[in-house]
Amino acid sequence: MMRLAIFISGSGTTAESIVRAGIKPVIVISSRPDAGGIGKMKKLGIAVKVVNHSSELLPVLEKAGVDVISQNGWLPLTPGNVIRKYKGKIINQHPGPLDPGRDMDFGGKGMYGRRVIAARIAFCRLSGRDFWTEATVHHVTEGFDRGPIIRVERLAIPKNSKSLVEITQKVANALLPLEHKNVITILKDYAARGKFMEYKRKIPLVGAKEKTVLEKSKKMAIELFSKG
Q1: 0.70 exceeded by the pTM?
Q2: Which of 65, 93, 121, 182 has the fewest CB atoms within 10 Å around its CB?
Q3: At residue 177, what are phi and psi to the nearest 5 degrees?
Q4: In whole numbers, what is the pLDDT of the chain averaged over residues?
């Protein structure tokens, strides 16, 4: 039996979808006492623990007998002792394409929430190619969004002249159920197989000459969505 912990920092929509899909975690851990997901989990009868300090995280997991962790909307950098303890068994949900190993992608420090989606859309517009984005789940390693990809769900980006803010919100709304599906599929697969599969990206997301375009896209996204 999979003994799952879910990490949240915000509204907990993915955590709620996981539970409603029949996957019951032994504990949900929130990094914030005011996270909207806490109420959702309590209504579903799931134990929630608020952990404000990284030093407290591993003892809480060990006490609950956790063997698999799913980070869903979790914002803090997960401490090294947790990553080492759960190597290969801790996954993270990300709302955009990643390219671990090449590291020119739509992840990294400060890239979360709508910023990721806006950066991807801006990059597609500025580069004039690849009008799609992805819901991604990847292994957690030390460093934001650097672990190997497990699975993706792709979504087309509309080609139109709407403002970046408007089109970002539209794409975010369409991407969210794909994010949920991605995580649920992976957790059910793990429960059946006892391991996570990996997805290999053959073609780089960003060309060697497009680094400046990527940096500009991320800067635009951060300025537009200062709160993520």
Answers
A1: yes
A2: 65
A3: -65, -25
A4: 96
